[in-house]
Amino acid sequence: MPAQPNRRTVLQLGAGVAAAGVLAACTSDGSVTATPTPTAPGWLPPAEPMAFPAGFVWGAATSAFQVEGSTTADGRGPSIWDTFAATPGRISDGSTGDPAADHYRLWESDLDLIADLGLPAYRFSVAWPRIQPTGSGEVNQAGVDFYRRLVDGLLTRGIHPAITLYHWDLPQALQDDGGWTVRDTADRFGEYAAIMFEALKDVDATWLTINEPKTTAYVGHRWGAHAPGISDVDQAAAAIHHQLLGHGRAVQAFRASGAAGGIGIALNLLPVYPTSREADPAAVRTDAVENRMFLDPVLLGRYPSDALGSKPGQLPADGEAFEALVQDGDLEVISEPLDVLAVQYYGVTGVDDVGNQVEVYPTSAAVWQQVHPEGLYDLLMDLLIDYPDAPPLVITENGIPDPTSEGTTDDPERLEFLRAHLQQAARAIGDGVRLVGYYAWSLLDNFEWAEGMSQRWGLVHVDFETQERTPKASAEWYSSAVRANEVAPS
Ligand code: FCB
After folding, report:
1. How far, in Å, from the CA of 33 to the mean position of ligand 1?
2. Which candidate in 374, 397, 448, 451 is catalytic?
3. Which atom of ligand 1 has the smallest separation from the CA of 448?
């Protein structure tokens, strides 16, 4: 693969002063230089509301396994998350994907709820094992029909569908054949995607191929904390390439289908802040592992040269084995032009000089989430500078869990989180970023993967005993912001 370090900024924290800093840039020879930036106090939001452009798309997001339940209904096959959740010790509270938020049965009233909140868009995912119970071959028409009804229900209510094709629920039969560690799965994904484009080709939807390939690779295959529960860094690297290849095959199938709407991929990106000048090189490599390993192949048609290896901050995978997986033409497929780049933003990380990711901002109840709204601005501006030819951006996930697992409808933390992040989004738009939409995570309290039902991310509270929905204070606030197309100061 070509050695092409691109310019990617990382912020260096001043000695303990979180917001001030020095921009460090990776130059073309791979060395890190420092560019002094103003040491003025951090940016402050204006006293007036910040307006969004006309036509800005506002929504909320869910994913199939997290909300649907009904995991054996209407011919659905088992997914890796059914298997994982059924394995003792994998899910913190022992819950499974049933009934989750029972959305498979309550979808109509959930669409009414979205309409009542005045949200112009809804992001959901299709469960592949409802469409092809074993991941290949025969189509299960009952599964297709469910999503057709859901999409028609959205259109009837004037709500734009954003449809994720893969949000982690791989058919178990494909996992039995190697899952994302084998190339065949990319081909199967392309076939499944083509089925969905054909079924919904008349719909002006925003299609997203793969949700967070990084999480599946690292959390699912390196750390084993998500399905399929593998702990092997080389399998993690293989899972990156095969997911991205599957993404590219789906984009090709989308173009061939002549379907209306547009297509992109949903990448979770992580601004990386070195904790000292000595940490700069490790931070640049961490940026490669966390961000450029996904952005570069998709947007530039090449993998970064500094992501894999044994230096501080790198993914300690076998680079030659990885290169051997990348066949001629793969990177052309992976970098098929997109209509939109979906960005998922939850927070930032610090990196020390030995490459450890460290806490530099306070975490939410999700220990991995260091909350730093200004990081969203940094990220969007970095994308503008580093990938000037990228398609328009849409934020497809951003949110925070309730502080405790009990659940509440009084959620000032989430309200302020949304406000602060939307202010940074508006600021970035003002500074030239082509950001066309924003989806809060999540519409509903739901099954939060390894945390089960014990971590609630919803704008809307769900009583898991009765399945009663109650909008939280943040939902009411978000609804007003959406209707006004602006974010008010606190
Ligand atoms: C993201 C996932 C989403 C949800 C949030 C909290 O990584 O895409 O399904 O779990 O985190």
Report:
1. 34
2. 397
3. 10
Q: CA torsion 242→247→252→253, rounded to 10°?
A: 100
**Ligand 1 centroid from CA 449, angstroms:** 8
Give the whole-angstrom CA distance, residue 362 versus residue 347. 10
Question: 393-449: per-residue pLDDT in tens?
Answer: 999 999 999 999 999 999 999 999 999 999 999 999 999 999 999 999 999 999 999
How is 22-51 classified by DSSP, letter by letter?
A: EEEEE-TTS-EEEEE---PPPP---SSPEE
Categorize the per-residue pLDDT at 41 as very low, low, confident or very high, splitting at 50, 70 and 90.
low
Pocket probe for ligand 1: among 79, 103, 210, 344, the residue whose CB has the most ligand atoms within 8 Å is 344
Q: In the chain, what are the domains?
A: 21-487 (3.20.20.80)
Query: Is 212 marked active-site?
Result: yes
Q: Are 454 and 406 in contact (CB under 8 A)?
A: no
**CA-CA-CA-CA dihedral for 293, 295, 300, 306, to nearest 10:** -30
DSSP structural state of residue 136: S
176 vs 275: CA distance, rounded Å? 42
In this structure, the residues whose C-beta lies within 6 A of any atom of ligand 1 are 63, 66, 211-212, 215, 268, 397, 441, 448-449, 457
Q: Which residues of 95-105 are buried (b: 16+ CB within 10 A; e: fewer)?
A: bbbbbbbbbbe
Site to substitute for ligand 1 among 68, 223, 397, 448, most atoms within 8 A of C-beta: 397
Cα separation, 293 vs 392, in Å, equals: 20
Residue nearest to atom 10 of ligand 1 (CA): 448
Amino acid at 414: R
Give yes or no for a cis peptide into 442 (omega within 30° of 0).
Answer: yes
Residue 341's DSSP bridge partners are 265, 393
Which residue, among 195, 294, 279, has the nearest Cα to 247 in the 3D structure?
Answer: 294
Contact 459, 472 (CB under 8 A): yes
Q: One of 212, 290, 448, 451 is an active-site residue; which one? A: 212
pTM attached to this predicted model: 0.93
